[in-house]
C-alpha cells in the first residue's frame, strides 16, 4: 500500500494517522520524542528528530506522499522535501502562516479583515503605536507562539515595561484588543483538483488563552455564519490551499468578522467532527492531500467538545463510570502537566443548552481547580 509521511507525532498527527490507517495507508511519522502520541500507535514507523537532514531524508524515502501537523518545521527542511519528495500542500501556505506579519498581510490581500495592528521591532515602536491602537492591546511574538504563550496584554502605559521582554524573541505585532461577542472558527479543506469543503462553524470558548470548549452549531446569526464561511473560502482560494486551513475569527458586536490567526492543519476546534460529522477533519485532510474527492461534512448531531488538560485527567478518570454518553479521547501522553492538552471529550446532544448544563453539572472542572489551587 501507499505510505503517508507525517511531520509531527503529537495528538494531531496521531488522529491523522489513525484516519489514514483506516483508509488503508501505511504511516511514517517524524518526531523527536520516542514516546509521542503517534509512537504509541501500532505499526507506525517513527523517525526521530524534526530537522536533522538525515531524518528528513528517511521520511522522504519511506513516504509516497508527505503532510504535516507540526507547524514550525524549518523552511530549509520543507523546501528540501518539496524538491525531493511529493508534498502536495507545498511550502507557501505553511511559511506564510509561520509568521504573524506575513499571515496578516496575506489575509488582508485576500480581502478579509484583521484587528488593527502594527509591526513592532523595538520598545520605541510600542510607545509610538499604542496611542493609535488604544488600551488594551495585545503584543504577540510574530513566530512560534501557541496557547497564549508569547503574548502580553497591555492594559495601561505601565504594562509596556513588562511587555517589551517579548522583543527578545524578535519581531512582534501589536494588536488592538477586540471586544468580541464570540470567537468562532471555520475549518476548510481543498484538494489539488480545487474542490473545497468546510466544517460547520464552531463557537470557541477559551480559558486563559487555551481553547476550553467548542460548541457546534455556533450560536450566531445566519448572517454571521455566511460571512464567516465566505471569509474562509476567500482566504483558501487566494492561498491556492491544498489540505486543511483552520481560520480563527473574532465576531464583533455588529457581526463583523476579524480574522485572528490561521493554522494550515486540522485544528483543536475541529475535534468534534470525529463523532459529529459525516467526515471528520482528519479523514478529510487525508482525502484532500491525496486528491480524493472530499466527503460530506454534514453535522449529524449538535456537539460540544471540551479539552482535557493535565489537571483534568484524574477527575475525568474518576467520573468515567457515570459518563456513558461522553466520547473520551486521551492522546497517550504520560506526563499530565498542568495546562498541557492531554485529551478531549465530545458530547453529542440534540440540544446544545442541555449538553452544556450536563457538562456544568460534572465535578471535573471544580476538582481540577482545587487540584491546582486556583
Ligand atoms: P493558539 O495557536 O493555541 O490558538 P496563540 O498563542 O497563537 O494560540 P492567539 O490565538 O493569537 O494565540 O490568542 C489566544 C487567545 O487570546 C484568542 O483565542 C483570544 O481569546 C485572545 N486574543 C488574542 N488576540 C486578541 C485580540 N486582538 N483581541 C481579543 N482577544 C484576543
Ligand atoms: Mg496560534
Ligand atoms: Mg489561536
Automatic annotation (TrEMBL):
<keyword id="KW-0067">ATP-binding</keyword>
<dbReference type="InterPro" id="IPR016185">
    <property type="entry name" value="PreATP-grasp_dom_sf"/>
</dbReference>
<dbReference type="InterPro" id="IPR013815">
    <property type="entry name" value="ATP_grasp_subdomain_1"/>
</dbReference>
<comment type="subunit">
    <text>Homodimer.</text>
</comment>
<keyword id="KW-0658">Purine biosynthesis</keyword>
<keyword id="KW-0436">Ligase</keyword>
<comment type="pathway">
    <text>Purine metabolism; IMP biosynthesis via de novo pathway; 5-amino-1-(5-phospho-D-ribosyl)imidazole-4-carboxylate from 5-amino-1-(5-phospho-D-ribosyl)imidazole (N5-CAIR route): step 1/2.</text>
</comment>
<feature type="binding site">
    <location>
        <begin position="175"/>
        <end position="178"/>
    </location>
    <ligand>
        <name>ATP</name>
    </ligand>
</feature>
<comment type="function">
    <text>Catalyzes the ATP-dependent conversion of 5-aminoimidazole ribonucleotide (AIR) and HCO(3)- to N5-carboxyaminoimidazole ribonucleotide (N5-CAIR).</text>
</comment>
<feature type="binding site">
    <location>
        <position position="206"/>
    </location>
    <ligand>
        <name>ATP</name>
    </ligand>
</feature>
<dbReference type="Pfam" id="PF22660">
    <property type="entry name" value="RS_preATP-grasp-like"/>
</dbReference>
<feature type="binding site">
    <location>
        <begin position="260"/>
        <end position="261"/>
    </location>
    <ligand>
        <name>ATP</name>
    </ligand>
</feature>
<feature type="domain" description="ATP-grasp">
    <location>
        <begin position="104"/>
        <end position="290"/>
    </location>
</feature>
<feature type="binding site">
    <location>
        <position position="183"/>
    </location>
    <ligand>
        <name>ATP</name>
    </ligand>
</feature>
<feature type="binding site">
    <location>
        <position position="100"/>
    </location>
    <ligand>
        <name>ATP</name>
    </ligand>
</feature>
<dbReference type="InterPro" id="IPR011054">
    <property type="entry name" value="Rudment_hybrid_motif"/>
</dbReference>
<dbReference type="InterPro" id="IPR005875">
    <property type="entry name" value="PurK"/>
</dbReference>
<feature type="binding site">
    <location>
        <position position="140"/>
    </location>
    <ligand>
        <name>ATP</name>
    </ligand>
</feature>
<dbReference type="GO" id="GO:0004638">
    <property type="term" value="F:phosphoribosylaminoimidazole carboxylase activity"/>
</dbReference>
<dbReference type="InterPro" id="IPR054350">
    <property type="entry name" value="PurT/PurK_preATP-grasp"/>
</dbReference>
<dbReference type="Pfam" id="PF17769">
    <property type="entry name" value="PurK_C"/>
</dbReference>
<comment type="function">
    <text>Catalyzes the ATP-dependent conversion of 5-aminoimidazole ribonucleotide (AIR) and HCO(3)(-) to N5-carboxyaminoimidazole ribonucleotide (N5-CAIR).</text>
</comment>
<dbReference type="InterPro" id="IPR003135">
    <property type="entry name" value="ATP-grasp_carboxylate-amine"/>
</dbReference>
<feature type="binding site">
    <location>
        <begin position="145"/>
        <end position="151"/>
    </location>
    <ligand>
        <name>ATP</name>
    </ligand>
</feature>
<comment type="similarity">
    <text>Belongs to the PurK/PurT family.</text>
</comment>
<dbReference type="GO" id="GO:0005524">
    <property type="term" value="F:ATP binding"/>
</dbReference>
<dbReference type="GO" id="GO:0006189">
    <property type="term" value="P:'de novo' IMP biosynthetic process"/>
</dbReference>
<dbReference type="InterPro" id="IPR040686">
    <property type="entry name" value="PurK_C"/>
</dbReference>
<dbReference type="Pfam" id="PF02222">
    <property type="entry name" value="ATP-grasp"/>
</dbReference>
<dbReference type="GO" id="GO:0005829">
    <property type="term" value="C:cytosol"/>
</dbReference>
<protein>
    <recommendedName>
        <fullName>N5-carboxyaminoimidazole ribonucleotide synthase</fullName>
        <ecNumber>6.3.4.18</ecNumber>
    </recommendedName>
</protein>
<keyword id="KW-0547">Nucleotide-binding</keyword>
<dbReference type="GO" id="GO:0034028">
    <property type="term" value="F:5-(carboxyamino)imidazole ribonucleotide synthase activity"/>
</dbReference>
<dbReference type="InterPro" id="IPR011761">
    <property type="entry name" value="ATP-grasp"/>
</dbReference>
<dbReference type="GO" id="GO:0046872">
    <property type="term" value="F:metal ion binding"/>
</dbReference>
Amino acid at each position: 500500500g501507499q505510505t503517508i509521511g507525517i511531520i509531527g507525532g503529537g495528538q494531531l498527527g496521531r488522529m491523522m494517522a489513525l484516519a489514514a490507517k483506516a483508509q488503508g495507508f501505511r504511516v511514517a511519522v517524524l518526531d523527536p520524542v520516542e514516546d509521542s502520541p503517534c509512537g504509541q500507535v501500532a505499526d507506525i514507523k517513527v523517525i526521530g528528530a524534526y530537522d536533522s537532514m538525515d531524518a528528513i531524508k528517511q521520511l522522504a524515502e519511506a513516504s509516497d506522499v508527505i503532510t504535516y501537523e507540526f507547524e514550525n518545521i524549518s523552511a530549509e527542511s520543507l523546501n528540501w522535501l518539496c524538491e525531493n519528495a511529493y508534498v502536495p500542500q507545498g511550502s507557501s501556505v505553511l511559511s506564510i502562516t509561520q509568521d504573524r506579519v506575513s499571515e496578516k498581510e496575506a489575509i488582508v490581500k485576500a480581502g478579509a479583515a484583521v484587528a488593527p495592528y502594527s509591526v513592532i521591532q523595538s520598545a520605541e515602536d510600542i510607545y509610538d503605536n499604542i496611542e493609535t491602537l488604544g488600551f488594551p492591546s495585545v503584543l504577540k511574538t510574530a513566530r512560534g507562539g501557541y496557547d497564549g504563550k508569547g503574548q502580553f496584554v497591555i492594559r495601561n502605559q505601565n504594562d509596556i515595561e513588562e511587555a517589551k521582554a517579548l522583543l527578545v524573541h524578535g519581531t512582534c505585532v501589536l494588536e488592538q484588543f477586540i471586544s468580541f461577542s464570540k470567537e468562532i472558527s471555520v475549518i476548510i479543506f481543498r484538494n489539488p483538483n480545487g474542490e473545497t469543503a468546510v466544517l460547520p462553524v464552531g463557537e470557541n470558548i477559551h480559558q486563559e488563552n487555551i481553547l476550553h470548549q467548542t460548541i457546534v452549531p455556533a450560536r450566531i446569526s445566519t448572517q454571521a455564519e455566511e460571512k464567516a464561511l465566505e471569509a474562509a473560502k476567500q482566504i483558501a482560494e487566494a492561498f491556492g490551499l491544498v489540505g486543511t486551513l483552520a481560520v480563527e475569527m473574532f465576531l464583533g458586536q455588529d457581526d463583523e468578522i476579524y480574522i485572528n490567526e490561521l493554522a494550515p492543519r486540522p485544528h483543536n476546534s475541529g475535534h468534534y467532527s470525529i463523532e459529529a460529522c459525516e467526515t471528520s477533519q482528519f479523514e478529510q485532510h487525508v482525502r484532500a492531500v491525496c486528491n480524493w474527492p472530499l466527503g460530506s461534512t454534514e453535522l449529524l448531531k449538535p456537539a460540544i467538545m471540551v479539552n482535557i488538560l493535565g489537571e483534568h485527567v484524574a477527575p475525568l478518570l474518576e467520573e468515567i463510570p457515570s459518563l456513558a454518553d461522553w466520547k473520551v479521547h486521551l492522546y497517550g501522553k504520560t506526563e499530565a502537566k498542568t495546562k498541557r492538552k492531554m485529551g478531549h471529550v465530545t458530547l453529542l446532544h440534540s440540544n446544545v443548552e442541555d449538553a452544556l448544563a450536563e457538562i456544568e453539572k460534572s465535578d471535573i472542572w471544580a476538582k481540577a481547580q482545587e487540584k491546582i489551587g486556583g
